Amino acid sequence: MAVMWSVIFYTAAAVAAFYFILLRPVMKNQKEQRRAVQALQIGDEVVTVGGLIGEVKDIIQPADGPTEIILEIAPGIRARAVTEGISRRLTTLEPAEEPTPGQEASQPSA
């Protein structure tokens, strides 16, 4: 009887370890990727699953079917892609923080 409980315990421990060590981080990365793709804006630079780097020029959301993205991969060359084909977002149109004039004056000169 004790052997049966130890087998059940070790099996449950192995399943829990598999979940927390392997499965959970992968699911977390997939969730973050989906969230980043949903937040895409026109002007963002993205990398596709195939390795192409392009700038988002248009986002088309049809009533039925997947969301399509128009990418400009070179000047004047555009390609259509679905959101599932986007691997990650490289840059966004968010403005870079510029130092205020008061901060520049307070920095010591070399």
Derived structural class: alpha+beta
Strand residues, percent = 25-35%
Shape: elongated
The whole-number mean of residue pLDDT values reads 83
Number of DSSP helices? 2
What's the structural domain tally?
Answer: 1
Strand ordering within the main sheet: 4-3-2-1-5
Radius of gyration in whole Å, from Cα?
Answer: 24 Å
> How many DSSP E strands?
5
Look at the structure and give the CATH class: Mainly Beta
Run of helices and strands = HEEEEEH
Identify the CATH architecture.
Roll
Which sheet architecture does the biggest sheet show? 5 strands, antiparallel
The first-to-last residue Cα distance is: 78 Å
Low-confidence stretches: none
Q: Give the proportion of residues in helices.
A: 25-40%
List its traits.
single chain; alpha+beta; 5-stranded antiparallel β-sheet; SH3 type barrels; 28% strand; 5 strands; 39% helix; 110 residues
Mind explaining what this structure looks like?
The protein is elongated, with a radius of gyration of 24 Å. The protein contains 2 helices and 5 strands; from the N terminus they run H-E-E-E-E-E-H. It has a 5-stranded antiparallel beta sheet with strand order 4-3-2-1-5. The protein has a single domain, classed as SH3 type barrels. The chain is of the alpha+beta class and 110 residues long. The protein starts with a helix and ends with a helix. Helix content is 39%, strand content 28%.
Produce the secondary structure layout:
Layout: H1 2-38, E1 45-48, E2 53-60, E3 68-74, E4 77-82, E5 86-91, H2 101-106
